[in-house]
Amino acid sequence: MGRPRYESSDNRDEQREIATALEGAWNATLVDLGDASEIDYVAIRDRQAVGLVEVKRRRNPMGKYPTLQISLTKIIAGLKLSISTNLPFILAIQWDDATGYVTIKAGTYNVVEGGRRDRGDPADVELMIEIDTGRFRVLQKTPAPA
Q1: pLDDT the model gives residue 35
Q2: Order of all β-strands in the sheet with 89-94
Q3: Quick check: is 72 in a domain?
């Protein structure tokens, strides 16, 4: 038996909302790659793939932490696809108060132990990369929820 799947339909709806905002900013269509893919979307412009996109939602303001952590396994998968296709691998994050993105480059981040400890799943703790939040290009600022 594999790992439990924690992604809910609400998570997928949030990802789609973020993808829609990215589409407008990038003048591209983000095509959902589905459950079989290790990353979320491919960006298409004029029928050509122009980028590989992983989308995440963080429930805190962008400035709460100096870095963002994301699974090293996820980053490796995206970079492998990037190398194979010669397309940039982009990580897009929506925080409570901003949406931003960064193009992921191999070998430019700290590797640390991290992850969730609140679900009692030991597989939630893994190697992560840390990305300085100052490296993200901010697409839009949004008011923080009340």
Answers
A1: 84
A2: 29-32, 41-45, 48-57, 89-94, 98-103, 137-141
A3: yes
- H-helix or E-strand containing 90? strand 89-94
**Residue 58 located in a structural domain:** yes
In-domain check, residue 143:
no
- Count the neighbouring beta carbons within 10 Å of the beta carbon of residue 113: 10
Write out the residue range of the structural domain in which residue 39 sits. Answer: 9-137
**pLDDT tens figures, 102-118:** 999 988 899 998 877 77
Scanning 27-120, the segments in alpha helix (DSSP H) are: 72-85
Q: In DSSP terms, which residues pair with 67 in a beta bridge?
A: 132
pLDDT tens track for 54-72: 999 999 999 999 999 999 9
CATH of the domain at 105: 3.40.1350.10
- Of 14-18, 46-50, 75-79, 88-92, give the lowest mean pLDDT range: 14-18
How far apart, in whole angstroms, are the C-alpha atoms of residue 89 and residue 98? 20
